[in-house]
Amino acid sequence: MSKILRQIDLQNVEIEDKFWSGRLETNINVTIPFEYKQCKRTGRLDALKLDWKEGGKNKPHIYWDSDTAKWIEAAAYSLVVKKDCSLERKVDGVIDLIASAQQSDGYLNSYFTTVAPQKRFKNLRDGHELYCAGHLIEAAVAYYNATGKDKFLNVMCRYADYLTEVFGSGRGQMKGYPGHQVIEMALVKLYKVTANGKYLQLAKFFVDQRGNSPVWFEQERLGGNFERFNSDKHYVEDFSYNQAHKPVRQQDKADGHAVRACYMYSGMADVAAETNDRDLIRVCRKIWDSITIARMYVTGGVGSAYYSERFSFDGDLPNETAYSETCASIALIFFAQRMFNIDKDSRYIDVLEKALYNTVCGSVSFDGMHFFYANPLEEYPPAREYRGKYENENHVQSVRQEWYDTACCPPNIARLLASLGNYVYAHSGKDIYVNLYIGSKADFEIGSTHISLHQKTNYPYEGKVVFNAKVSEPVKSTIAFRLPEWCPRATMKINAKSVNIKECTTKGYIRVSRLWQNNDKVELVFDMPVRKVYANSIVRQDAGRFAIQRGPLIYCIESVDNGKFLSNIAVDKNTKFTVANKRILGQAISVINFSGKRRIDSGKKLYVYDSIKEKKVCLRAIPFYLRANRGLAEMMVWLREC
Amino acid sequence: MSKILRQIDLQNVEIEDKFWSGRLETNINVTIPFEYKQCKRTGRLDALKLDWKEGGKNKPHIYWDSDTAKWIEAAAYSLVVKKDCSLERKVDGVIDLIASAQQSDGYLNSYFTTVAPQKRFKNLRDGHELYCAGHLIEAAVAYYNATGKDKFLNVMCRYADYLTEVFGSGRGQMKGYPGHQVIEMALVKLYKVTANGKYLQLAKFFVDQRGNSPVWFEQERLGGNFERFNSDKHYVEDFSYNQAHKPVRQQDKADGHAVRACYMYSGMADVAAETNDRDLIRVCRKIWDSITIARMYVTGGVGSAYYSERFSFDGDLPNETAYSETCASIALIFFAQRMFNIDKDSRYIDVLEKALYNTVCGSVSFDGMHFFYANPLEEYPPAREYRGKYENENHVQSVRQEWYDTACCPPNIARLLASLGNYVYAHSGKDIYVNLYIGSKADFEIGSTHISLHQKTNYPYEGKVVFNAKVSEPVKSTIAFRLPEWCPRATMKINAKSVNIKECTTKGYIRVSRLWQNNDKVELVFDMPVRKVYANSIVRQDAGRFAIQRGPLIYCIESVDNGKFLSNIAVDKNTKFTVANKRILGQAISVINFSGKRRIDSGKKLYVYDSIKEKKVCLRAIPFYLRANRGLAEMMVWLREC
């Protein structure tokens, strides 16, 4: 296998972008401090003092350490982007708490240590211990990379060392694996930063052990001290929920709980890349295809079923009842990036971009303090209210919420946004990949030569992107520019001279190989027409409907602009779409205007015969990520075509 | 209030009908014996021996007596229609068992007596004791009316007497009421047959006590010996589920569990009619409107939500996930008949007919041994399979099943069909109402004069209906013929002379007042074109769609006739429909042929841009009641219009 690409270090990318900079600043200045307060307020930090007693306030919960960990990870990335001594002190304080919570054998978990010490590793399926461990490890690596301080890293190495003793195929070792994956990715990160091969080995063990018969989750259920954590009322006795229904290498479709699944696939790709495991890469590709060919929303959302928050079946993509968890799209981004690093194919980044600009970008409010957990593609508030009241659908909300009892999404958004710089470029040897079109300055070393790329653009609202290269000396290198799948036609000029794009495009990248000179200028123009998107004929929920896309952005209509009862709106096949500028939430937004028909109310009869009446209406679509920012509203992505 | 109509005695109506006779014979010859065997096989009959011991086989269930009761009721009606000594002996045997299960104080319940004697009446909300009592009372009344034998009736009077002591507003009496209604209707039946006013009073007490503050269900939950029966996993802590969220007279919308609700509304109408309670009738009308204006499927199904099997909210009528329980439509038929008896308005019978010919008629197979519990309006087998496996939706099935653990529907269908003769006519004084167009002979007494009406028709497939009257002497009487709401134009001739229908139509009935002579002949012709039905604009799930109706029958398309992926089919606004004859299951069925478009597969891409291709296809619709009789198939009632 050819050399695996690496993401470049976060400190080598500086984002200066009309679309993103404001949001990233809000993430650092508002969201991260806000989430710290939420962790504190809810008892997540105090739980690490291990002084909770039965009957006491704020009983620790099995997930809590993972939320704290993700907050630290987000803070760590933000410290790379923007120094902040006060934040760093806060993090150090939390790390001191974490360190103080570590047991003499290395074990570290605020819930099990205080609430259920006898149950350590007795219910891997539901207990989330290895999940918490994984997030703590990821946070420790991020903080070490950000600050060079190794206290937290050492704590987590001790815990990881303990885990390598407990788990494994050796005599007396547990043959178990996490019920909620993430530790696979985390251990590979720990391996990369410590070069300690046993962490990689443990990650590989977790991957390869999963789903072997007899299934560990069945064995542990029959063992001593097993406790069912009934926190998930939708839990169904089924190993596919945890991707343990068969050995991982025999799995060929994304299945079960979507966040668990995509974290696992990311970890599999990591293990495969690090161990050069072609068989595992083949499995990863197959699973990737199963998602992107039949199980992914046009917004890059995955896990369509509310019940069990899982992948359901091919072509099943309900809109109003879509779950499409924020964390699942973040996990899909992780998986996409890893697969891109292996295959260097733009199709992975096309999906990453879709998930980023639509689901993830829309999952946090512009004020940085409200979050979507689930991201349905259709919103009818009376239905949401009904289901919230009578069907306990409390994760699915019509408007963004300040916090959730299960709070995985908010800190996950924060860490993803804080590390956005990691996703813009990739490089390896003499190759530089430009994956995302985000205004930025990035520094690369090709051998001993320094290349600095300055990217300027109004993407995603405009298709023009200009790069200026600075080189310490002329250098032979290939810069590969992603040709987005949504773009019907692109032009490129280098130093004002046209490039024949077709001739130099491979696997979705315009590969420009040349001796780069100082001040070389690359001008890319992506045609960005409004496009109608049709789902495959296997998606029954989107039959007769289309979505509006422009650039990477999926659009939606809201009742705020278009009146109530959006279901009564239909759009003629030949309707023309025009792009207009409008300020929404202080942002200059490209909205899309078009005409449609609206059913006229048919009075009080529930059913009428023969015909109904319609009238012509003017309609406006806004980007999906902007939805639900102007009060409670109906919303619809897939519009009826007539 | 003007005189309440009565249904005529079952023995005075003899059905001889092309559409119904075969099915009614199957009901008597196959379904009723089959259901007896199922009751026996599953332990429902043995449970009445009260000899079950902990650890024993076939542990009695809280519902079981109600299933046995409904079977007896069905058998009783069938004995009226067709003498059968062997069946009568079987029923007597079961009645002996029931009598032997009665406790010395009159109490009678196989579950509570054997399994949980300490819990008698401790959980009225979930325990189904008064529900079982209600069905047993209804069965006893039916059997007494059918055979004149009073053993069962006396047993149930003793139980009812006991109930009148236990429940009531007096000192020391329980202020409770059933968690699952039906006993209200039953007590009114018992009152009518015994003329004992205290049964009517108890029915009225149950109606008026419900929902008063503090809610009984809350009080009993805090009381001793309360046990939560978790048989319904979807149970939500909410009193609207049991229609106890507010006093009944303050309720203005059908709410909560649909079968409970419609049984209660029927009981309310009974109490209102018998006590001349205008306020309660006003409430009943309001609730009726709330159903028929906003909460009823075009098939006469009600209770759209699978979760809690309940009414959800106005305009919420999902098709594929429709619950639309068979029992709920039967209950709606009860409610409709009672409201018609009070208001003499055809709108009630229009709904009754809708529910009868579509939901109820389709809920049992032609072999009489397979039943639908839920009646969705759209079927996509992979979705059903998924939800059955991962979301425990085991009541909702793609094909009719032989039995269900919760077996309320099969015997309910049997008793409804066995008593079909009760729904064809109504009369009061000098008025005869013809409600259903079903080939039959019916006898009426107007004073001392005997009228015999002979109805001949090929309804619901043809709109012509001919009546021949035989009278013992010329008699002044009004015969009111229902003008079905689906009929755009009707003609009537009496003795070959045209009648001006418009002039003599009131509240949906063509009222023919005359001196009826022997051999008078009435010829009614209802135009029966194929009609497109559109749902009100509040029904978002049917937007852009239409249903096909002809006569009272709603049609559907199935993949058996039209190929898989029905969602890819759309029908042009101007499509012409033609009626054709086809034999299906040995029946001469009017199918409907028309042309449409079908989306051509778009290959392996999940999303494509700009346009898709369609081809012209020939389509065939069959009556909804005939669906799922030719193997596992996709099915769709609401067709996409383009």
Q: How is the secondary structure organized here?
A:
The structure is a homodimer of 642-residue chains.
Chain A: E1 6-7, E2 13-15, H1 21-41, H2 64-81, H3 85-101, H4 110-114, H5 124-127, H6 129-147, H7 151-166, H8 183-194, H9 197-209, H10 216-222, E3 256-257, H11 258-275, H12 278-294, E4 310-311, H13 326-343, H14 346-362, E5 378-379, H15 381-390, H16 409-418, E6 425-428, E7 431-434, E8 440-446, E9 449-457, E10 464-471, E11 475-482, E12 490-494, E13 497-499, E14 505-506, E15 509-516, E16 521-526, E17 530-535, E18 545-550, E19 553-558, H17 559-562, E20 569-571, E21 578-584, E22 587-599, E23 607-609, E24 614-623, E25 635-636, E26 639-641
Parallel strand pairs in A: 7-11, 20-26
Antiparallel strand pairs in A: 1-6, 2-8, 3-4, 5-25, 6-7, 8-9, 9-10, 10-16, 11-15, 12-13, 12-16, 14-15, 17-18, 18-19, 18-26, 19-24, 19-25, 20-22, 21-22, 22-24
Can you put this structure into words, describing what you see?
- Two copies of one chain form a homodimer.
- Chain A is of the alpha+beta class.
- Helices cover 35% and strands 21% of the residues of chain A.
- Chain A contains 17 helices and 26 strands.
- In chain A, strands 2-8-9-10-16-12-13 form a seven-stranded antiparallel beta sheet, with no helix packed on it. A six-stranded mixed beta sheet of chain A has the order 1-6-7-11-15-14, with no helix packed on it. Chain A has a six-stranded mixed β-barrel with strand order 18-19-24-22-20-26.
- In chain A, a hairpin with a 2-residue loop joins strand 18 (545-550) and strand 19.
- The first copy, chain A, is globular and about 70 Å long.
- The model of chain A has no long low-confidence stretch (mean pLDDT 95).
